[in-house]
């Protein structure tokens, strides 16, 4: 499994941590069966099922980089919820005898907490474990204190795993952002050094030649001067082609351009709720124009809306992207905005030049909605 990015490293750590947690429970289960339930076929079958589902869950996570949906669900049902009952039917009719099968519910709870993305799904998994384990312990006549302690362990396992996953995912994302910024800064320094070298070369060649011709110190019709001009014209053409290629390489993708605009606004204190659905890649110049238009729309929220919040929604499909920037600020009358300012120039004109379109819907006291479309 590749662990290149910060997020991938966080995922790898969670897979390892929950895998070790499950391994410790399996060791306890094997020792308990060997010592006290060696003759119970159902207990050995339960161990086999627990080992098999563990290999399925963590083997899949290891190969794919993260937990899927079905392996953790199978583990939750078979190992977390069902396992205690066959063990009880096999003769483990005391709380101490069934405890090892209950213990596995803690690691099933931890896996569900990090594998299921929706909080409602995690809550449902924990509730299912609490209900089945309460029934299992009650069938053995366990004390209320024993049951309560075990249920607390199940809830704690889920909560701690979920918190760890949230924290590690956040730190991984911050690490990726910092790495990207460092790489971008290094690339910018390299481009700056290259520009300085080109400026010096232009000063020593093209500019020197033009200055000599303009001052009359060189005869523009002389063969050596014409040959020098030809060489320097070829150098200028190579420089222009190289610059165009670099600009195309630096042009951001659709998602990167919009995310850069969002982060830029957030760095200035605006709280932006961004939602993406079906985002598609569009030509690099259009993506750059779209990102710049979103930047200006968010800058207008900062400058004029009188609110610290904005909503950015991005939808796309079939080569088409629509971005809406909405705020609930003071609003304005679009008809009173002077020509050549803000939304009309920096947003509308930019989108039209790239083959897109922009619409602004606002009224005093009603907030502002800017819709950006590409293609128009």
Give a concise summary:
This protein has 376 residues and is α+β, with helices and mostly antiparallel strands. It has helices spanning 6-36, 41-64, 70-82, 84-89, 95-115, 119-139, 144-204, 206-215, 223-250, 254-267, 284-305, 342-353; strands spanning 271-277, 309-317, 320-327, 357-362, 368-374.
Report on this model:
With 376 residues, the protein is an alpha+beta fold. The protein contains twelve helices and five strands. A five-stranded mixed sheet has the order 1-2-3-5-4, covered by helices on one side. The protein is elongated. The relative contact order is 0.06.
List the helices and strands and how they pair.
Blueprint: H1 6-36, H2 41-64, H3 70-82, H4 84-89, H5 95-115, H6 119-139, H7 144-204, H8 206-215, H9 223-250, H10 254-267, E1 271-277, H11 284-305, E2 309-317, E3 320-327, H12 342-353, E4 357-362, E5 368-374
Helix pairs in contact: 1-2, 1-5, 1-7, 2-3, 3-5, 3-6, 5-6, 5-7, 6-7, 7-8, 10-11, 11-12
> What letter string, H or E per element, gives the SSE order?
HHHHHHHHHHEHEEHEE
- Spatial strand arrangement across the major sheet: 1-2-3-5-4
**How much strand content do the residues show?**
5-15%
Number of DSSP strand runs: 5
**Total number of helices:** 12
Rounded mean pLDDT is: 84
Gross morphology: elongated
Beginning-to-end CA distance, first to last residue: 43 Å
Q: What can be said about the biggest beta sheet?
A: 5 strands, mixed
- Rounded to the nearest angstrom, the radius of gyration is 32 Å
Could you name the ranges where pLDDT drops below 50 across 5 or more consecutive residues?
Answer: none
Overall helicity: 55-70%
- Structural class call reads alpha+beta
